[in-house]
Every structure is written in structure tokens, then in C-alpha cells.
Amino acid sequence: MNYPPAIAPKPGTEAWIMQDLFGKYRLIWIEEADAIPAAAQTRFLLLLDDLPAGAAVVATSNCKLEDFKKRFQTRFKIYEVEPPAPHEIETLLRRVGLADERTIKNIATFACGCVRQALLDAESALQAAA
Predict the structure, then answer these.
(1) Which domain covers residue 23, as residue numbers?
(2) How far apart are CA 103 and CA 127, in angstroms?
(3) C-alpha 36: how far from its chain's center?
(4) In 3D, which of 28, 21, 33 has the Cα closest to residue 55?
(5) What is the model's pTM?
(6) 63 with 11, same domain?
(7) How far apart are CA 54 and CA 116, in angstroms?
(8) How many CB atoms lie within 10 A of CB 48?
């Protein structure tokens, strides 16, 4: 099957597309769906229309729903995920081994809900302490 470059499967995974791995259900995960070019969105909509039974598509995006074409919006059920609160990030940082409460509080506050940034800052703090 020829896929547009924007939605091409990762190398080596082509054989997995639309095949049963562990049961009768299939999941297609698309990161950063807002990065799909407009022309590829149209092609992607055609692929969504032809999915076999038991297939689900999960797409992530940091954009607003209005940034997508109307036809693209109506194909998905939208779930907005709020970023974690600073106290939740603090709990995570304690789990990964940070002990200094001041460092934990600073990282959690300045991460502004970005777990990736908090973990990168925690890694730097742990390396500096070693």
C-alpha cells in the first residue's frame, strides 16, 4: 500500500498495518496530527472511511480543534487532557530520585505542566548532584 509521506508507517512496521497482533482489535496511533499537511489530511480521511471493523484511531495534537478542517474534526471524539498540576509533577520528581525539596519545587513550578521538561531538568539536577 502506498502511503503519503506524512502518514507513512515507521520503517519495518509495514507488515503490522491492519493485521491482528493480539486479538480482533487494532489501534492506529498518530502523534501530532496537526502536522499532517492539508493534502495528506484528505487522503487520511479516505483511509479512515475504509478501516476494517474493530479498528480504532487515536490522534494527538497540541492545536485547537478549530485548526483542523471540519471534515477532519467530525471523524474523532475529542478528549482534552489537562497538564498535570505542579504538586503532581513534584510527586513524580520524588519518584525518580530527586531529594532536594527546593529543587523539586523549582522544577515543578517552572515546567508549567510540561512533564518532558520537568524530567529533563530533573536529569540535569541528578547529574549535577552526582
Answers:
(1) 5-73
(2) 13
(3) 14
(4) 28
(5) 0.56
(6) yes
(7) 32
(8) 16
